Amino acid sequence: MRRVTLLRQSIQIDIELMDSTRAVVRRSSSHLWFEQISSFKDVIGQLCYTSQRCHKIPEALVKLYGSRVHSLDLSYNELVSLKGLERFSFLRELVLDNNHLADSIVFPYLPHLHTLSLNKNQNTI
């Protein structure tokens, strides 16, 4: 078993990687969860990082999960930038509801993306 630790402000979240076929992380009080079923070489993970009051996508999330996540939920933050999103190269679903994204936001090319949610932002689209 391998253990990975992610720090967000003063919250420590331990991720136990039980084997190469299943990993589940849940901590509802900090609104972070990651679930991946199948091997870590496959791209079938979901990542939820909500209600963290972040203005940009944390570099730790990009480095740890960017190449494995197909579904990303960054709702209820204070995002004004999407820098780092281009490294989520297998992303199919992206939820950015309730952030501070304006009409001028630039989206990177995400070739697999088919679902995008931008409800309740500062955009007029």
TrEMBL record:
Transmembrane segments: none annotated. InterPro entries: LRMDA (IPR043313), LRR_dom_sf (IPR032675). It comes from Nicrophorus vespilloides (Boreal carrion beetle). This is Leucine-rich repeat-containing protein C10orf11 homolog isoform X1. The gene is LOC108558354. It comes from the Eukaryota.
